[in-house]
Request: fold
Amino acid sequence: WGLITLAGLMIASWLVYLTLPKEGNQGGLLNLRTRMGLNSLDPTLFIAALAVYSGIALLLVIGLLILILSTIALPFSPDMAPEEKRSEYLFYVLRIAGLTTVLGAV
Reply:
């Protein structure tokens, strides 16, 4: 959990750094807000929505990577019969397809 916490702090620090205005122009995220045509949206609300969106995308990517690693490790599981492994493997592949679809939609 320590690494996940550290990664979260790094991402939060990076987002704060991007919101700081540079000399003579707006901050990076505020410039992104302008390019997206969301000038009427409050900057705080925009950053909060972007943080939620980034968090959801990060969780989906991490979940997909864990699922792929679990699928790779499944054939080496000693406590399952070969028939069970086959059906479980199919279920894992279907879960990967579904999670990839959801991640593509985000």
